[in-house]
Every structure is written in C-alpha cells, then in structure tokens.
Amino acid sequence: MSADGSLSRPSKNNRQAPRESLSRQDEGTEPSDLPDGTPLRPISVEAGRQLRDEAVMELTDGMRARPWYSVVDEWRDWYESYLNSHIEFEGPDGETVRTELENSYMPKYGRRYYGKLKDLERGIERECESLTTVMLTFTASNRNAEGGYRCPADHMRDIMDGYDAARKQVHQVLSGLNWEYARVWEPHKSGYGHLHMAIFVEADDLDAERFRPVMDSHVRNCDPAGSEAHTLENAVSVNNDVNNLGTYISEYIGIFGEQPTERPMTEQMFYAVAWATNTRRVDFSNGAHDLMAREQFRRETGLRPEERGGEAFDEWRGTDGTGSDWSVDSICSVPGRHPDYADPTTGGVDTAVIDGRAGVDPPPTVE
Question: Which of 277, 338, 350, 353 has the fewest CB atoms within 10 Å around its CB?
Fold first, then answer.
C-alpha cells in the first residue's frame, strides 16, 4: 500500500497490456503539454529525497529525478493500468468475489471522501453544542532564488515542513478546547500545491487573531513562504455557521466526476508530484477518524457505538467494518475475455533515493 492509501501498480500491469485507452493516452505526454518553464524541471534535486521508482532514472552521475513532464506520463500510465484491473476476494468456504481495483485518484474514491466528510459532519454536530470552523492555508513561492521555477517535490516538502511546525502551534492556541482537523492538499492553477487545514472547534468566540502564532510558525519554518501571503486576512478564515460542512470541505479537496487524466494539465501535474512522493492528499486527525468510524457503525448496524460497553463497536472496527473473514486471493487484469492473475503479495511501492544537485534549485527567502 502507498502512503495515500492506494495500491501500487499491480505487478502484472507493469507492461503495456491490451486495454481501452483514455484520450491522448497512447500519444504520451510531451514537454509542450506543460506550461513554459516547467516541463523539463526535475521534480526534485534534494539529496536523499525518496521517490517512486517510476520517477527516478539512473545516469552516469548518479540517481536523478525525472523531469516533470516525464513523471506526468508515468503517472498517467500507472493510472491507466488500473482501468482493467480487479482484486479477487476469497470467502471462508472457498467462494470468490471480484471487484475493480481502485486507487485514490479515481472519481469513485473522491465520492468516498465526500461520504467520509459527511460522516465527520454528523459526528461533529452530534458531539459539539457550538461549532466554529477555521480554515488555514499554507503556501510558498514556486520560484527559486534565481527566478526559475522550483522543483515541485521540493516545493511541496518545504510547505510540509512549515505545516508540521504550525500544527504544533495549533495545539498550543487551542489548548483546553475540543477540536479535530482535516488536512487537504490542493493544486494551484500553476500545477504547484498548497495546503489547507480545516479545524473544527467546539467554541463560539474564536477570531482569526488567535491563529497569528500558527501562521508565524509556518513562515519561520518555510523560507519560501513569506509573511505577506500568510496574513490573517489572506490565510485564516473563521466561520461560526457552516450549514454543510462536507460540501464546504469538498470544495477544497477538488472532487470531480471525470477521470483525473481528463482534468486540466496543471491539475495532472500536481497529481503526478503527489503520486511520485507518496503524499497523502487528504488526512484527518485521530479523533476525526474515530468520529467517522462511529457514524459508519451507526449507519451499518443501527447501534450506538457505546452500547454493550462498546464491545460491538470494537468488534466491528477490528474487522475493518466488514464483519467477515474474507481475504485477498489475487489481483488480475482483464484485457479480454480471460483474466490474467497475479500474486497480490508481489505488489508494493518500489522507491529510490536520489542524489543531490547542489545549487540547481536554491529556494528563496521571502519577506
């Protein structure tokens, strides 16, 4: 499993198999498909950066990250490999059931995220008498100290470093309050990413000023961030009345009904970087995960999680909500009438560590 919760490319699908193609897929991705200045940019030049094997190439001077356009092409090929792939489950009595193999970039996965957000909405409303929703936005300049475009994976890591520090400040400024959060990566129109942190607080007297130390912490720990882009007016939104929390958050996630390979190229550029770095694009606090699980349990069983001392809920959660003894039997591709089976244990995400290229992409220090 990858860090974003999706399986790697099935081992039997590493080759070009007969399949129904998406538009332009057979042509491949060309440098001219990406905006000027970005296609030949390696996605990373940071020494020790760990990337998927498909995003790395071995040259005479060491392991290097592929250029951005090439990583988009690899991501598109990986995505297409799922379109005729299935996973087969075997029951305790030997019966089998086959279902489509999924990854987290598929439209159906987006709909599942929306369902989880609606569960979170119901759980928070059930737990909180008064609710305030705070949206924090963390970003950074996509230009380096020499005026060129940043390597997108290194840009993403810079933002994440600032966020990791800022999240600790959130714990400080909300000490003593009941709160949970969802963290969401979203693409800019440039193809680079930025990060949202949606915080749900049981309180009715919060204002943006409380979060000034949070934004200051991000700026201190992310040189390309800059204080101007992280003022309270630009980066902090406090809402005391959100009628449809799931829809509100989903606007930031970018849930669409069409295939991701049909989205604008700048969105595909972002998805390719997230994929190459095994970045989880949506994540929740532990408490939020628990609230969502409780709502799913209520919906599927009609019981309250605390009934029978919580034993029924614990037993349900121990089987991942399935309540059965079914196990993964195999992964198969179905390019024609006859499936091609593969051992599910041969999958996994293969990664490689790249060598650095000092001075190629110096990040700016933004005031």
Answer: 338
The number of distinct structural domains making up the chain is: 1
Residue 14 in domain: no
Q: What is the pLDDT of residues 79-123, one digit of tens each?
A: 998 887 777 666 666 666 667 778 889 888 878 888 888 888 888
> Which two three-digit tokens encode residue 230?
């992280």
Q: Is residue 22 part of a domain?
A: no
Instruction: Report the CATH number at residue 243.
Output: 3.40.1310
Instruction: Give the phi and the psi of residue 354 in degrees, each rounded to 5.
Output: -90, 155
Short-list 101, 80, 90, CA closest to 23: 80
Give the long-range contacts of residues 65-68, CB within 8 A, separation 24 or more.
Answer: 65/151, 65/153, 65/276, 65/354, 66/42, 67/31, 67/39, 67/40, 67/41, 67/42, 67/43, 68/34, 68/38, 68/39, 68/40, 68/41, 68/42, 68/43, 68/152, 68/191, 68/269, 68/272, 68/273
32 falls within a domain: no
Helix (H/G/I), strand (E/B), else coil: 59? strand
What's the Rg (C-alpha) of the chain? 22
- Confidence (pTM): 0.84
Q: Which residues contact 361 (CB under 8 A, 6 or more apart)?
A: 45, 144, 148, 150, 151, 154
